[in-house]
Specification:
Elements (H helix, E strand, L loop, with lengths): L1 E7 L16 E4 L4 H9 L4 E8 L1 H6 L1 H15 L3 E4 L6 H18 L3 E5 L4 H6 L4 E4 L7 H17 L6 H4 L16 H13 L29 E6 L3 E3 L15 E4 L11 E3 L7 H5 L7 H10 L4 E8 L7 H17 L4 E5 L2
Parallel strand pairs: 1-3, 1-4, 4-5, 5-6, 7-11, 7-12
Antiparallel strand pairs: 2-3, 8-10, 9-11
Helix pairs in contact: 1-6, 3-4
């Protein structure tokens, strides 16, 4: 079995965040975790190529990266494409998912990846791929790669892959037909009775859980409060200096409007693929209402307008990713002494 392995700059030994802009590099044979992967694949298999790319480059140049990877995988005559494990690294997971999806759909070559459940790549690609649950860190590397090997070998052999709990991959959100002894009504009543009697039971539907967020106390006197604007409408300075993605954004930016009473459309653009941006590009105050807030500031309706706004894109963003960015924004809000936030959207 001929295998091509994709890893990021960290696991490729190039460097950490300082090397996140590294372009795609191909090396012959196994590298980093690929050595363990090749060992677990067995004597009749080999990693014919390792593809290494920096996380920033991968998400900023995804189309070019995908084209290059497809060419290299095609030329290698690979039987299997493996990406990761990515653990909690969001940019790594998004790139790995995109590449696995492209290799599988365009080349017809089986692909498997591994990520933590909070990785945004899971929600983006769970339906298309088998994504092994890697956990949050590399301490279980051997077990994770062993599970990836098992699923990869079954994909190549055309064998039936069991349920997520049996095989160790993330649920894919797919509904499959199965023959059972009890009707749905009988199963439902059985679960209800078990619940009433305090007995254990397993629901057939996995419910989404949300972290409880306490309601903050009201601002006592808004006329003395420091107010900040946050938008998920993707308003960024011309040129998008922070390279905020228009889809499933992994980054957010802070931009100053100190000394301005309104926003000029020539100075801004939209990085968001979910709405028609023409009206906002014509007048950015429609999304970040600086003009109205300056008037309120002068009238004393609010105490002070913070001279920066925070922006990202909220389009198709997995909950795990937005939760992380939200917590990062909260730290800035606290550090800047902000009393109230106005959140604007599309």
């Amino acid at each position: 079995m001929r295998v091509v392995h994709y890893i990021n700059q960290f696991f490729g030994g190039i460097g950490g965040e300082e090397a996140a802009g590294s372009p795609l590099e191909e090396r012959s044979g196994s590298v980093g975790p690929g050595r363990l992967l090749e060992q677990l694949l067995g004597d009749d298999s080999q990693i014919v190529a390792t593809l290494i790319c920096g996380d920033n480059y991968a998400v900023e140049q995804q189309d070019d990266l995908t084209t290059a990877v497809l060419d290299k995988v095609r030329a290698s005559e690979a039987d299997l494409f493996v990406a990761g494990p990515c653990f909690e690294a969001g940019r790594y997971g998004m790139a790995a998912g995109a590449l696995c999806n492209a290799v599988q759909s365009e080349l017809g070559i089986p692909a498997v990846a591994a990520m933590h459940e909070e990785n945004p790549g899971v929600d983006l690609y769970r339906e298309a791929l088998y994504i092994v649950n890697s956990g949050a860190n590399a301490s279980a590397m051997r077990d994770v790669i062993s599970t990836m090997v098992n699923i990869g070998q079954k994909l190549i052999a055309g064998e039936v892959i069991g349920s997520p709990s049996e095989e160790g991959y993330h649920t894919r959100g797919l509904i499959r037909d199965a023959f059972v002894e009890q009707t749905s009504a009988e199963r439902l009543v059985g679960m209800v009775m078990s619940k009433v009697n305090g007995e254990s039971f397993e629901s057939e539907m996995v419910s989404t859980s949300f972290e409880p967020i306490p309601v903050p106390g009201a601002v006592q006197d808004i006329s003395k409060a420091k107010v900040l604007v946050i938008t998920d409408g993707g308003l960024v300075p011309t040129g998008n200096p922070d390279k905020i993605e228009g889809l499933a954004a992994t980054r957010w930016g802070t931009y100053s409007f100190e000394g301005k009473d309104n926003l000029d459309g020539d100075d801004y653009e939209i990085s968001h693929g979910g709405y028609d941006p023409r009206h906002v590009e014509e007048d950015p105050d429609r999304l970040v209402p600086l003009d109205a807030l300056r008037e309120m500031e002068k009238e004393g309706a609010i105490g002070e307008l913070h001279n920066e706004f925070i922006s990202t894109s909220g389009l198709a963003n997995p909950l795990s990713n937005t939760r992380r960015m939200g917590k990062e924004m909260v730290e800035k809000v606290k550090n800047d002494g902000v009393d109230a936030v106005i959140l604007t959207s599309t």
